[in-house]
Automatic annotation (TrEMBL):
The chain crosses the membrane at residues 65-86. The lineage of its organism: Eukaryota, Metazoa, Chordata, Craniata, Vertebrata. Residues 1-38 are annotated as: Disordered. This is Proton-activated chloride channel. It is a multi-pass membrane protein. It catalyses: chloride(in) = chloride(out). GO terms for molecular function: chloride channel activity. It comes from Malurus cyaneus samueli.
Length: 350
């Protein structure tokens, strides 16, 4: 009969439903096992659509190496900048301690007539004339008084070094026109002397006009004798003195004047008929050239140049430090990204 078979199948179905309801976790575990088995299948590289880990690692390594090289380069540049700062400051201090002497030349057509102070002693001025173009006419009656065409002044003052003895000076106006080669020719006569050698002292000062306009001429001459050097010219010769003017500027802004001389001496042939025991002195004063030499100390260190250079160096230092900081941050970021990708790939493979 068919009825007993239907009842038997229904009973088996109910038993299966009860078994499933009593153990639901077993079925889920089976499903998970199936899913894990399906996920454990490894696809080839082409199907993953990503690059291999070794290639990615090589690119990251190259980037890191390049960053390290750049970092060392900028550290080297920073060291060079620091050395330049030190060297610049050292050079500036050295130039401040040792200024450079500067010499300039100013061309003039007329000089301020210098003063020529003679200390003739027992000698007497016979003649004084201005000539031009280096031409001195032949002597007429040498040893006899002649024309005195120069501006002269006589003055007595006490010796600036001892203040005990009196000195007599004959001050003569020197030449002015350097373009026409103006010169002053003077002749002195010394009747007799008890010395073995005969000579006349003289000194040069910068301006004859200052001497004339001075109210205290004795003090003026004492100051000149204290400031300027004195020279001599001998009897029996014609001494030709070529002068040049040197101005020196001091650190406090004051200016000093100094004369340089070139002298040439020619023997005088005495053609007077009777032998004499007196001495004749001949001296010529002329400007050497139309150039006034100015000497001054110049500090070649320019503070503005040093400040500009230091600003540029410090700017480069800050830029290099900023770049180094960014490079380190970038390297750390790249390293973290590389580690993160490595973990992702490891987890994916596992």
């Amino acid at each position: 009969m068919p009825k007993p078979e239907v009842s038997a199948s229904y009973q088996e179905l109910s038993e299966d439903v009860e078994r499933v309801s009593e153990n639901p976790t077993d079925e889920r575990e089976g499903e998970m096992e199936v899913h894990e088995d399906s996920s454990s299948v490894i696809l080839p590289d082409g199907e993953l659509g990503t690059t291999t880990p070794s290639l990615r690692f090589s690119k990251t390594c190259l980037k890191n190496v390049f960053s390290v090289i750049l970092l060392f380069i900028y550290l080297l540049l920073m060291a060079v900048a620091v050395f330049l700062v030190y060297q610049t400051i050292s050079d500036f201090r050295e130039k401040l301690k040792h200024p450079v002497m500067s010499v300039t030349y100013k061309e003039v057509s007329l000089y301020d007539a210098p003063g020529i102070a003679f200390y003739p002693g027992k000698a007497r001025l016979l003649s004084c004339k201005h000539h031009y173009y280096d031409h001195i006419p032949p002597l007429i009656n040498p040893g006899q008084p002649g024309d005195i065409e120069c501006t002269t002044q006589r003055i007595n003052y006490s010796d600036p070094f001892t203040n005990q003895t009196m000195k007599y000076a004959l001050v003569v106006q020197g030449p002015r026109d350097v373009k026409k080669r103006e010169l002053v020719f003077l002749q002195f006569h010394l009747n007799e002397t008890d010395q073995d050698f005969s000579a006349i002292d003289y000194l040069l000062f910068s301006s004859f006009q200052e001497f004339v306009s001075s109210t205290e001429k004795a003090k003026f001459m004492k100051d000149c004798e204290s400031s300027y050097s004195s020279w001599k010219f001998s009897g029996g010769f014609r001494t030709w003195v070529k002068m040049s003017l040197v101005k020196t500027k001091e650190e406090d802004g004051s200016e000093t004047v100094e004369f340089k001389q070139e002298t040439s001496v020619v023997n005088y042939i005495d053609q007077r008929t009777k032998p004499r025991s007196d001495q004749l002195f001949f001296v010529v004063f002329e400007w050497k050239d139309p150039f006034i030499q100015t000497v001054q100390d110049i500090i070649t260190a320019n503070p503005w140049n040093m400040i500009a250079l230091l600003c540029g160096i410090f700017l480069a230092l800050f830029k290099a430090a900023d770049f180094a900081k960014l490079s380190v941050k970038w390297m750390i970021k790249i390293r973290r990204r590389h580690l993160k990708r490595s973990r992702q790939v490891t987890n994916h493979i596992s």
